[in-house]
Design brief:
mainly alpha; two-stranded antiparallel sheet; 13 helices
Length: 370
Amino acid sequence: MIPESPSLRISEKWTPLLLLGVSAMFLSEALIWNVANFSLVLAKGPVRALLSLLLGTAMYVAMLVVMTDVVHRFKVRDLTGLVLLGSIYGLLLEGIFPGTIFFPAGLGFNFFGIWTTNLLFPALSWHALIDFSFALWIFRVLLKGGLRLSEKGFSLKEAKWLGLFCFYWFIWTCAKWLTARMPGGIPPGLQFFILLYPAAVIGLLAMIVLKMKSASAPEKILTWRSGPLFWGFILFFAVLKFFSLPNNPAFFFLLFLIAAYFLLFLAYAKWGRGSVPENSIYGEAFPVTGDFSAVKYLKIVLFILFAYALFKFLALSPAFFKLSRLAAVLLAASMALFAAVFPFLAVYRTLRGFLSKRQVMDRGLEDRQK
């Protein structure tokens, strides 16, 4: 047997993580149509737009790599653990890179220099649930063949789920916070780009990863060599954000929140889980058993384009437009409510697990004394 080349081993380790990071960028930015700033960059020329895309990709890949490393080290696979780490990911993302939690937005109030509206949505809700927890879950499903990308046929059940996904994607174009920043609407060319660019990049990476049948999850994602590189990238932007803020103490409150969520995660990981699983949700994605059919993937992309165009046509009706806007508001409000309640739920599960394990230890001690 010919020994595996080091370059192949490197590609098998990092290409899946690149796919995960790009998928998170799509779920974080494109799915909610956070395109107002990119539209301004695009107006300055294609070179600026390309640099913005590359920087955004590097940002999301770095964030997903460091947080997936924590997921993998602590063997996290349950929703509570994922959302706790996803909350830290959201705080880092919204606090360090765009810094939206430090600036006023609509409803809410200023709490130690941080605006509660942007803190609850999207930092502690959308990011924690969608582009972190859901991204890791769908990554595992993809690599295990659960998305049926190897089957060229297209079932009615798949069409229903894709239709629901397209409606979920569409409603955010009607959200008031988007239309307020882009009164003329999203330019058709930009809409077409947002629909097709992620599909092309994610499709290409998925095809490559699904051919890596010999790939396996490493024992540790970050080593003593790669760890400082990724964490240094994030730290660099953290320092820039600290010195650019007019209210520096607000940054320390952000660090306090990150530390609080991490301590809660450590407590939950030790006491809140019934037992430590054999593997993390990332590790469970390997070995790769799924396959890729370009024909099936093309059908999915064309279906999404058709469904999106249909919803855009229906939105010409004021009633459907208002219904879509209401759906976006209700979803955002429900996510913000979840973000406010979730820490208490995590504390409850941690205390319940601690007391349960304490009772088991006490019973064991009594049995030994007898």
